[in-house]
Amino acid sequence: MPSLPELACRLRIRAANVSLYARNLAAITRTPPAATARRIRCTAFLFAALSCTLAFAPTAAAAAGAPARPALVLVIAVDQFRGDYLARFGPHFGTGGLRLLLEQGANFIDCRYRHSITKTACGHAVILTGVHANVHGIINNAWVERETLKRVNCVDDDGVQILGRSADQGGARLPAGTTSLGASPRRLLATTVGDELKQTRNARSKVIGISSKDRSAILLAGKLADAAYWMDKGRIVTSTHYMPRLPAWVEAFNQTGRIDAYFGRTWDRILPAAVYEELLGPDDVPGESTEWGLARTFPKIVNGGAEKIGPVFYDAFECSPFKSEVLADFARAVVENEKLGQRGVTDLLCLSFSANDTVGHNYGPDSHEVMDITLRTDRLIADFLGFLDGRIGLKNCTIVFTADHGTPPIPERLKAINAAISSGRIDNVRVLKTCEAALDRAFGSLGEGRHWLLLDESSLLFLRDVLKEKNVTAAAAENVVRDALLTLEFVEAAYTRTDLAAGRVTGEYGGAMLLSFNAARSGDVYYQMKPYWVDRKSGTNHGSPYNYDTHVPLLWFGVGVQPGTYAQRVGVEDIAPTLAHILGLLPPPMSQGRVLF
User: From CA 159, how far away is CA 542, in angstroms rounded?
Assistant: First the structure.
């Protein structure tokens, strides 16, 4: 059913079409021009009168008390949810979740990330800022700082402390080489829709981000958020960036021991195994992970292979749909205790499901595990939307559903289909040795045990003191490394800092790399892998500019949304300005997207 403004627009177009039809009819039937003109005027008047009535109908409705703005905006981001999952797994969705958004909302079927490095932090930072890493500065989940050559996490902050962490669990698990006492959005260089909402509504609106991952909650919520909450082993935590102490209701939630209660639980498929096998083939596929005591096939016992609760259990729990169940429980607690959407002002809740990413990494997009966690996520969303409908009313909400990236298939699975396909696993040691051997040949050997470079995922950084010692310019060394990378059979393209800084890259992939390049933070040489090559010993990974990584869902529902299926290509950066438009806000000041409605 079209909205009233949309119907008015259609009627105005219909009136113009009727006039054109009447003129053509007059020419064909030789009706006297005066009579034709009278008919045209009468028909046009009737359509114009009706369209004007309908055009003013929303104003009248608003005056009668209909909400002009949503009471609650809910942004749902599922970590590692490919754009094709909606169609692929959709026939098995329940009612009230993703099916509701698909059937009664707006579905942009060709939504893409335009940047090259499709990692969790980079994607989450785009969603509500409307800009890419070249502006927002989140170039990866973690990276090596150019000045210190130390690896930093995208949200770490040694000026704040974690609140709610269990002392007996030894703190949060951090990336190798990273040291941090707390977490905050200090490294995010752009502002979000939530930040605009806080400023414009005199800070009365509440903005809260929640996720299993710190970076997902923090980067969606923005700089001025009231809170960002995430999971740290068996507890919900936040940091002193947001508040001096954990709220009593969060402490009470932690005291229930919801996470620990899952120790020893069995994860099995929620539909008959034959349904999965018909769509995906066998459950047992080479290349899938067997980490954390989880079997490669169903059923899986979630205990980490241990006899009692410990760190390995929390790792196994992270790779299960049970983590999403706890997150959904906590989301309800947030709405209840913070009275979100119930205080006469628009609130924003950002909800990111991260367990899907861990499962996808370990088992790949074509696995029974990914299908199952997708179906379970749909049902969790349905339950949560039902809760919101009873508490606030979905008619008073605006909902956005998207993802931060997709993922490629497991190489072994492709090889089983066709052994000749270009696909495989990258040896990072070989990458580094190839580049350093080329530098030795070009500028003279450094000697045993010494290095020219640091390898930082898909980028390399020069050790500046070594370049100085050898009297080699960075630009010259970059060119040698770029050419060496292009000799590797799994490298599609390579880009130097000098060329990226000058904008001297071409093509769709070159343009994508420019959006991922931040002059203050990025490395010296970047390489792009060929399709279907992954830099992981088992399972799969993401981070490329290819369709399987960049194509994500984009669904809208509720207040301000024009329902329908939209085939035109849109970008994830369009979410922020569109949402700002619905809320009557200026878009974030650096936002580069466009308004979709």
Answer: 31
Give the 3-state secondary structure of 396-458: HEEEEEEECCCCCCCHHHHHHHCCCCCCEECCHHHHHHHHHHHHHHHHCCCCCCCCCEEEECC
Q: Which one-letter DSSP state was computed for residue 105?
A: S
Taking the C-alpha atoms of residue 227 and residue 153, their distance in angstroms, rounded to an integer, is 19
Q: C-alpha 222: how far from its chain's center?
A: 15
The pLDDT of residue 327 is above 80: yes
The CA distance from 145 to 177, in Å, is 12
Please give the helix or strand (H or E) that residue 374 lies within, else none.
helix 368-391
Residue from 192, 124, 189, 142 nearest 405 by CA:
124
| Spatial contact of 421 and 414, defined as CB atoms under 8 Å apart | yes
Cβ(335)–Cβ(311) under 8 Å? no
Residue 481 token pair? 């490394």
How does DSSP classify residue 572?
G
Report how far residue 510's alpha carbon sits from residue 131's, in angstroms, rounded to the nearest whole number.
Answer: 17
Instruction: Give the model's confidence band at 167: pLDDT under 50 very low, under 70 low, under 90 confident, else very high.
Output: low
- Going by C-alpha positions, the residue among 199, 24, 129 that lies closest to residue 572 is 129
Residue that the structure tokens 């707006």 belong to? 106
Which pLDDT value is given to residue 165? 87
Side chain identity, residue 222: G
**Phi and psi for 494 in degrees, rounded to 5?**
-140, 145
Could you give phi then psi for residue 501, rounded to 5 degrees? Answer: -65, -30
Rounded average pLDDT over 235-249: 97
Report the distance separating Cα 330 and Cα 324, nearest Å: 10
Task: Return the H-helix or E-strand segment holding 136.
Answer: helix 133-136
Whole-number CA gyration radius for the chain? 27
CA angle, 553 as apex, 383 and 570 as ends, to 5°? Answer: 140
The SS3 call for residue 9 is helix
> By the 8 A CB rule, do 271 and 278 touch?
no
Average pLDDT on 573-577 reads 98
DSSP state string for 208-276: EEEESSHHHHHHHH-SS-SEEEEEETTEEEEETTT-SS--HHHHHHHHTTTTGGGTTEEE--SS-HHHH
Rounded Cα–Cα distance for residues 551 and 569 (Å): 10
Cα–Cα distance, 283 to 268 (Å, whole number): 12
Query: What value does the mean pLDDT of the chain take?
Result: 89
Residue 68 pLDDT = 74
Check: CB of residue 548 under 8 Å from CB of residue 408: yes
The per-residue pLDDT for 7 is 40
Tokens of 112: 């893409």
Task: Give pLDDT tens digits for 476-490.
Answer: 999 999 999 999 999
Phi, psi of 367 (to 5 degrees): -95, 160
